[in-house]
Amino acid sequence: MSRAELLSPEGLRIDGRRPAELRKITSTTCVLSQADGSAYLEHGNTKVLAAVYGPREARHRALVLHDRAILNVELNVAPFSTGERRRRSKNDKRLLEMASFVKQTFEPVVIATLYPRSQIDIYLQVIQHDGGTLQACINATTMALIDAGIAMTDYVCACTAGWVEREAAIDLNYIEESSDTSEVTIAMLPKSSKITLTQMESRLHVDKLEEVFRLAGEGCKQMYEVMDKTIRDRAEDLARKMAV
Amino acid sequence: MATPAFTFTPSTFQKLHPAEFFRRFTTEGVRPDGRLLDAFRPTTVHHGVISTANSSAMVRIGGTTVVCGVKAEVAEPKLDAPDQGYLVPNVELSPMCSSKFRPGPPSEQAQAVSEAINRVLKESKVLDLKDLCIEEGKAVWVLYVDAVCVAYDGNIFDAALAAIMAALKNVRIRKPTYQEGTIKVSGGSTATDENSFTLNLARAPLSATFAIFDTTLTILADPNVTEESISDGQISITLDETGLLCGVTKIGAASCSQSVMRDCVQSAKKRTLQLRAIMSQQ
Question: What is its main location (chain B) (predicted)?
Answer without folding.
Answer: cytoplasm
